[in-house]
Specification:
Blueprint lengths: L5 H16 L3 H8 L3 H9 L6 H11 L3 H5 L2 H12 L3 H14 L6
C-alpha cells in the first residue's frame, strides 16, 4: 500500500469501486442502510468504516472482504474477474482515483 494506512486505503478502494460502477454516495448509502451524509463522512475520514460496512461493501461488489481491504487495485481486479469487465479499464479507474487524491502510484 506504499505507506497508506488501512483506513485511507479503504477510502480509496470505495472511491475506485464507486467510480468503476458509476455509483453515487446516495446509492451506496441505500445499500449500507446509511444516509448519504454518513457515507460522505466515512469517505472524508471523519467517521471510520465499520467491519459491518466492510462486509456489506464486499458482498455488494461481489468480492471478498480481504480483496476490499487489500486496496483499490486488488478490489477492482477481483470485481473485474467476477463481472468479466476489462481489467485495463479498471486499472485506469484506479489511476484516476490515486491522482485525484494526491497519491502517487498504486
Amino acid at each position: 500500500m506504499g505507506g497508506l494506512g488501512l483506513e485511507e486505503s479503504l477510502r480509496l478502494t470505495v472511491a475506485a469501486l464507486m467510480q468503476a460502477t458509476g455509483e453515487s454516495q446516495r446509492e451506496l448509502a441505500v445499500v449500507l442502510g446509511l444516509t448519504q451524509t454518513q457515507v460522505s463522512r466515512r469517505q472524508a475520514g471523519t467517521t471510520a468504516w465499520s467491519l459491518r460496512d466492510c462486509e456489506i461493501l464486499a458482498a455488494h461488489y461481489g468480492i471478498g472482504p480481504l480483496d476490499l481491504l487489500a486496496g483499490p487495485t486488488r478490489a477492482c481486479e477481483a470485481r473485474a474477474l467476477r463481472t468479466g469487465e476489462n481489467v485495463t479499464a479498471t486499472e485506469s479507474v484506479n489511476e484516476n482515483v490515486n491522482v485525484k487524491d494526491g497519491v502517487a502510484g498504486r
